[in-house]
Amino acid sequence: MTATRMTSARIRRAALAAAAALAVFTALPASTAHAADGTFFYHSSQSGDLEIDDPDNGECYLLLQGASSVRNRTDAVARVYYDQGCEELADTLVPGDGRTFTEPLARSVTFG
Description:
By secondary structure, the chain is of the alpha+beta class. Helices cover about 20% and strands about 40% of the residues. β5 and β6 form a beta hairpin.
């Protein structure tokens, strides 16, 4: 076998290995974000009883028309906020906790 044929064979094998690695890599899930398992329940005097099922960790969720009560039935910590942008912390609820709000109402929540 000449040096040219050996080099061509090695290049083909390297290309095949690279293609196989790329196929495995692209088959992996694209998202590494975790979702909390369970449901976050809240009550709004204008909208009634509402819920957020299996919320994504780190995402800011708006509580429609403000929540007068909340219950964290997820497996993640819920951080409830007075503002709509998840900045003005009102309370931190471990799984199973709940809270009632008068004024100001809770306006948003994050998980994780």
